[in-house]
Amino acid sequence: MNCCHWRRPPSFSFLLVQEFCLVFPIQAMGAPQVCISLLVLFLTLGSTSDTKKQKRDTGFEIYKKLFEVKRKDQISALNNLIELNDVNQQYKIIDIMLKGLFKVLEDSRAVLIAADVQPDGPFPEDDKIKDAYSHTVENSAFFGDVVLRFPKIVHHYFDHNSNWNNLIRWGIGFCNLSGIFDDGPHSQLLGLMAQELGISEKTPDYRNPFKTDHSEFFPNADAFQKALREEEKRRKKEEKRKEIRKGPRITRSRSEL
């Protein structure tokens, strides 16, 4: 068939109207008007639906391109963290990073829920909601990167934090429904993250793609545990210093004044 003469196939709405007109033969003067009115109604509904879909598709496709750029920046930052090759420094940086990440995720969830944003619905137009949408998707993805590259450090923090657990469960669900991870280089990220965190059951063939062997990223487990203990001691000392600084204030009685 010549492509120049290709016609768009009739829509479901048009076929429905056509069937209606065949079932109810034109016997009265008003019948044609009824068919025309129905045709206009269905075409209008179809047009509105197409417009909404087009609006989501346009905004969604633009964001997907921006998301890819953001992902490159995130991976670059993680590679720099890996190259530190210092467990103590990695521990400190990831500690600070995760606290900030989950605070942003929590705030973003509040905005999206308040605005009743559906992940598979029209792409947001309001700047505040768009920011919350992008922060949710990008931070969920970034957390997945951190989990898979630094599983021991992340489990040390994550496994005992129910709030973080609830937040990332919501984030993974939002991302899965958004369609952003349906294909491309990030299509397996959410599933791998969920399995690594124990949110979903590990499949028999589960394998962390960033593991080079069965000894995790830190071949010397004793060195890793030692680094964790040292960091815990440092944090406890820092907390004690803060308490001493805050300490009870000495108040003078009126007689002394």
UniProtKB/TrEMBL annotation:
The chain crosses the membrane at residues 22-46. It comes from the Eukaryota. Residues 247-257 have a biased composition (Basic residues). Residues 230-257 are annotated as: Disordered. InterPro entries: CC134. It holds the Pfam family ERK-JNK_inhib. Keywords: Membrane, Transmembrane, Transmembrane helix. This is Coiled-coil domain-containing protein 134 isoform X1. It comes from Geotrypetes seraphini (Gaboon caecilian). The gene is CCDC134.
